[in-house]
Design goal:
Bound molecules: guanine, zinc ion
Oligomer: single chain
CATH topology of the largest domain: TIM Barrel
CATH superfamily of the largest domain: Metal-dependent hydrolases
Number of strands: 17
Largest sheet: 7 strands, mixed
Number of helices: 14
Shape: globular
Strand order of the largest sheet: 3-2-1-4-15-16-17
Structural class: alpha/beta
């Protein structure tokens, strides 16, 4: 951690929206005091008394746990919004040429700074991040995340076929680089930074790469981040390349990549049988609805996934996603659920953007709640002006946070009590 890291706030007073640890509900504290201990954890959350002399920390704002972005791509920061979809042509035309630039450490370091600033400006305190296949890029990203004080899970993106040679890395050097990153960064700063195993998707990985990635994740107990069933052409090509597997999820199951440490990005077109296996094996899903709209990929059945008990978090999926704002992604999730005819309430979506994501990326006992023992990872959001003298209901507050896109910007982003970004 660098010397210029902002000082920790020991007392934070304000209007708090605190997610329930397990139920998709938000508890409101109209005037609360959060005490933060010397390690940056919440010591307690209590109502402020009438005699309390601590001033409101961010007047006019609501305070929530920081947003947890379960799926996005750091080397796509500068191609965000490139309208060259659907998925496979978009990868070829827009993504791979840009990701090839990340072989250069200086380029990676410059974009890593922009990327971290973009996360902080939108109130994201924790992220599951795909890098490029280049070890220098992952290292530059981790260095920037460390200096900014953000929490993240990342690693090299594993890919050894079906793309230009500049973005591929063979199995042996890839696994050796992953092991070096693990030794250097995994668990850094009391677990703030962690390394994950990231086979990009089945198409870009040979069976040997998938198998060894699975064994590596198992040996070291690492999370696995990947894509699944995003696009119909992708699903067809995956079936051609892996004819022995029963379906797309079966490819990951057959190579030791499934199970409770797996985070599956998109999961739009899974069959019922695959959803049953996702739920039974406690796999997690990163729901990326803004990206799904932009690439025309489809609408994930969020209501059904939640009703099955699947752990779901939200992902911006930058750069197929057009924003770093998880609030906008929650709004897109609301729309996508309506299109599927199975609504998901705004309260549930705000829970998914915070606590739900924390249960996907972890550690679930440290992140996503404002409660004693949890890290004080917070976002303060300005409330937009409203009519009438009555105090807003919880529903009105959540609607304002998620749906009034032109109002209510992020006021402060805090990790472990340190205001890393303030307006
Ligand atoms: N599938 C494989 N790679 C990618 C990627 O970079 N973005 C998205 N949205 N899907 C993918
Ligand atoms: Zn993605």
């Amino acid at each position: 951690m660098i010397a210029s890291m902002p000082a920790r706030l020991e007392l934070i007073r304000g209007h708090v929206l605190a997610p329930d640890p397990t139920r998709r509900q938000i508890v409101r504290w109209p005037d609360a005091l959060i005490r933060v201990d010397e390690r940056g954890r919440v010591r307690d959350l209590s109502p402020a008394t009438s005699a309390c002399e601590v001033p409101e920390t961010w007047p006019g704002a609501v305070i929530l746990p920081g947003f947890v972005d379960c799926h996005l791509h750091f080397p796509q920061t500068r191609i965000t919004g490139s309208a060259s979809g659907p998925l496979l042509p978009w990868l070829e035309r827009s993504v791979f040429p840009e990701e090839a630039r990340f072989a250069e450490a200086a380029h990676a370091a410059a974009v890593a700074g922009e990327f971290c600033d973009a996360l902080l400006a939108q109130g994201t305190t924790s992220a599951g991040i795909f890098s490029s296949s280049h070890p220098v890029a992952a290292d530059a990203l981790l260095t920037a995340l460390d200096h900014r004080g953000l929490r993240a899970v990342t690693g090299v993106t594993l890919m050894d076929r079906q793309a230009p040679p500049e973005v591929l890395l063979d199995v042996d050097p890839a696994l050796a680089a992953l092991d070096r990153l693990r030794a250097r960064w995994h668990g850094h700063d009391d677990g703030r930074l962690r390394i994950s195993v990231i086979p990009r998707f089945a198409i870009s990985c040979t069976p040997e790469l998938l198998r060894r990635a699975g064994a590596f994740a198992e040996r070291h107990g690492l999370l696995v981040q990947t894509h699944i069933s995003e696009n119909l052409d992708e699903i067809r090509l995956t079936a051609e390349l892996y004819p022995q597997s029963r379906d797309y999820l079966g490819v990951y199951e057959d190579h030791g990549l499934a199970g409770p440490r797996a985070i599956l990005g998109h999961a739009i077109h899974l069959e019922e049988d695959a959803w049953a296996r996702v739920a039974a094996d406690d796999m997690a899903v990163a729901h990326c609805p803004d990206s799904n709209f932009f690439l025309g990929s489809g609408c994930m059945p969020l209501r059904a996934a939640l009703d099955r008990g699947v752990r779901v978090g939200l992902g911006t999926d930058v750069g197929a996603g057009r924003t770093f704002s998880l609030r906008r992604v929650a709004a897109a999730a609301y729309d996508a659920a309506l299109i599927r005819g199975a609504a998901v309430a705004p309260e549930e979506l705000l829970w998914l953007a915070t606590r739900g994501g924390a249960r996907v990326l972890g550690p679930a006992d440290r992140v996503g709640c404002i409660a004693p023992g949890f890290d004080a990872d917070l976002v303060a959001i300005d409330l937009p002006p409203r009519s009438g003298a009555a105090a807003p209901t919880l529903e009105a507050l959540i609607d304002a946070v998620l749906f009034r896109h032109d109002a209510g910007p992020v006021r402060a982003t805090v990790v472990r009590g340190r205001p890393l970004w303030q307006r």
